[in-house]
Amino acid sequence: MTHHFWNQQRGGDIINAQYDYRPNYNGNVVVFRDGRSKGKHECFLLLIDPDKTAVLQSLKQAADCALNPGASGKDMVLAAVKLAKENGAINLSLTDNSTKHISDSKSFRLANMYFLTTGQTWYESILPDLYPTDINTDIESWRHIVKTNTWSTLSRRLGNVSLPVDISDIDIGQAGSAMLVLARIKHTGTAFFADYENKLLVASKISSLYGINWRIDL
User: Fold this and answer.
1) What SS3 state is found at 117?
2) pLDDT tens digit string along 98-111?
3) Could you say which of 66, 129, 194, 200 has the lowest number of CB atoms within 10 Å?
């Protein structure tokens, strides 16, 4: 039998965020559709299998996802992890398809922007114990590259690119200066990463982190 009902999860230690969630029991699989009001697309979809492995199948931030209007995407990820733990999951897997939309025609992958500016993906910044499950993913090698790239080398590979920030105070020949420049650009909130995402990856000599599978042990 499939049961449909609404319940309320209060955030507490999840940074005071509050979410409504609806669990559906479909055979032995528990499916949690979390956030937003009835009739709207869920904010996240969490599946817990009989073997107690959980999958965060989708995640989409919207203004009405949380009862607390100040809640963020980070709060939602932490709520999903807490929900998985409370229901006995031993690990949680996810595929990083996080995307930031600048406009109807411009967007970029959050994983790539975060990795180029911090050396970790957006999900890693929230869940530091995440590890990739794809065999051919050389995350640590890419992490070393972005943390040691110089802006002088990266800018030469990029070619003619207009920067939305002043970088005159940065030693562009110093190891790690590329990350400093890109981090400064990140804070401008411009369309720079949407315009140059692919070129930045090629110039940095790393692959895209979009679509990579991750897991965290609970």
Assistant:
1) helix
2) 888 888 889 999 99
3) 129
